[in-house]
Write a structure and sequence with these properties.
alpha/beta; 9 helices; 16% strand; binds NADP nicotinamide-adenine-dinucleotide phosphate
Amino acid sequence: MTATLMNGTELAASIRAQVAAEAAELGGACLATVLVGDDAASHVYIERKHAAAREVGIETRDIRLAATTAEDDVVALVEELNADDSVDGMLVQLPLPAGMDEVRVTHAVDPIKDVDGFHPVNAGNLYLGTPLHVPATAWGCMELLEKYEIPVSGADAVVIGRSEIVGKPMALLLLAANATVTVCHSRTRDLADHTRRADIVVAAVGRPGLVVPDMVKPGAAVVDVGINRTEHGLRGDVDPAVAEVAGYLTPVPGGVGPMTIALLLRSTLKAARYRRGLLAFRGS
Ligand code: NAP
């Protein structure tokens, strides 16, 4: 079998076009980002988010602070953005510099503006099955499954990874879509035993090539969230040879990666709608 590659670049482009049309209809929206410190990858991600937002007609505020900024000052800035009526959505780029309390800073974001979906109000609503803002990467994976008409209801799904950013929200979204979900992690005893039974495998680990062909059921859909910079270039968590066994596979690059920014833009529109009373925000 040769897997159908799930093209995230193409789907992300169509979502961005849709966001552009909706942003114009809404009369615009504004996304503020806060970047603290010198993490090189974070600077690249922030540039990309701003370029993508501008392209769809979302106004942006790009706030960058030195790594030496006091945690209290970062929290004060977040509170200022919470109070700023011209800002619809906001995110604090992670990781924060060593020693800074990420939980305190991300929890300071007003849930209605929390486009990353990391605030406990948003995480809690996802847990309760009443999602408001949802982490963009997991949302992007669900959109890819939907686009390629992968049956989720009743499917056996295995999520490898249990981070707050990807693994847990992914498991909850699959559960909400009526999959039977198993969450695997670094202490899972026999990972292959789980993945071999799965109709859907989502790998969100950060280990290049962790999922190899004999761990995959023939015909399964495999979603590779991993982004690993190796000496051979960018690699996912899934060995590309899995394409010989799987029915569907997201390539790296060009699979989940482009979806994340597209869904972040959609979340910004959602925030603008919540704030204008066009959508009910049941979280506060
Ligand atoms: P993370 O916070 O480091 O979490 C990794 C998870 O993988 C943990 O739950 C860990 O288990 C589990 N794990 C580690 N080794 C394992 C093993 N050998 N077998 C099974 N599970 C194992 O990472 P993350 O933030 O979720 O990101 C995961 C990957 O996705 C990274 O490559 C990241 O770059 C990528 N990513 C991509 C996007 C995108 O837009 N495409 C967005 C976000 C992240 P424990 O909990 O037991 O430690």
